Amino acid sequence: MEQRACKSCARAKRRCDKQGPQCSRCRRRGIQCTYPTAKRTAFVLCKEDTTSSSSSGHHHVHDVFGHEVIGDSANKLSQNETQPVSDWLDSSSLDTWNLGFLSLPVSPRSVPSEQLVRYVAMLREWLTQWVEQGSNPFIHAFLYRTYMPPCVQDAYTAFSSYHHKKLSNEQMIFRIIEDRAKQLIASEGIPAPKASNFNLNSLEHLARVQSLIVYQIIGLFDGDIRLRHFAESQIPMLDNWVQAMVAHAAEMVSSSGGTNLCSREQLQQYIGTDLDITSHENLDWYSWILSESIQRTWMIASGIHAIYLMMQQSVSRPCLGYTVFSTRPGIWEAPSAVTWSKVCLERNTGLVQMADADRLFSEAAPEDVNEFTKVFLQATFGAERMERWITHAKDQR
């Protein structure tokens, strides 16, 4: 017998985990959970395999970004299944912000120095794309369209000056960058490790992390000794801010009993008056933008320090956890809520947990994966496997 979604989730058009006697969503919201009569199905549930991961086909690798990745070949990604827009926000809700951690005794693979140099060049290219086009794979075009926090404005102008610097003025620009970074730390730094995450809202948490990322990319990889020394001293600060950002997201989702990362009033401020705040489509879209931006920014922040550590000491960082992120092209790039909803409804959106990222090699074609995911896959599994994947896809055409 196939168990259908509970009546409450069905009415709200939300994903139901079909747990008994009450699903997770109804339990969180404190509402009655009633299941309809199950209908017959041709499928029979198998008993869950209780063997350890070491004997079940799982494999583990350390990626360049300091994440430990576990691949599950038995968990298939259906490329033909469409996904309701509301599922994007509810299916990952609390689980999205409860980072998984793996502590397996594995040996990280070595990464060629030239590949690390390419990653650094890519990070600079993405920041250049941001100042020239207004967005990049981890800073969404609509994120700061209406409201750009002052710290982001400073980081934007600082990198723009850095990008256009000349030999005659680079020392002046370096001083400006250092001063802006110090100002950010002084104004946004958490005074105590256990300070409340509610002192900042979700966008402010994200803004200060993205701003410090800009200064860290410049400082750690430019070559200027003074800037590098300062950037090295801020590695723990960025780690703390990232942890606070994710913890705040989890707290907001938990306290709202759903997937809201910010209040309706804050959404009104972020979206502005040019979009209809009463439109659920606009609210869902911006909520997704905020959620996806936090997840991608967390991965970038982890990657920056992991790359620097590998370039400096040829060692990888400890596992920093894993989360979920979108993999399909066209979703991040959607210029409006209408387009975003249309893309989400017409095709599988490719919401993938980092722990299952290797599924993409067997279940998706390279053209079905976005730029951000391709960079993550190459950093995790290496250029050789990426090349085999691309070559195999061409041979199948």
UniProtKB/TrEMBL annotation:
Residue ranges of every copy of the Zn(2)-C6 fungal-type domain listed in the record: 5-35
Pfam families, alphabetized: Zn_clus
Gene Ontology MF, one: DNA binding
Entry keywords, A to Z: DNA-binding, Metal-binding, Nucleus, Transcription, Transcription regulation, Zinc
Highest taxon listed in the record's lineage: Eukaryota
Transmembrane segment boundaries: none
PANTHER family: FINGER DOMAIN PROTEIN, PUTATIVE (AFU_ORTHOLOGUE AFUA_4G03310)-RELATED, TRANSCRIPTION FACTOR WITH C2H2 AND ZN(2)-CYS(6) DNA BINDING DOMAIN (EUROFUNG)-RELATED-RELATED
Protein's UniProt name: Zn(2)-C6 fungal-type domain-containing protein
Species of the source: Talaromyces atroroseus
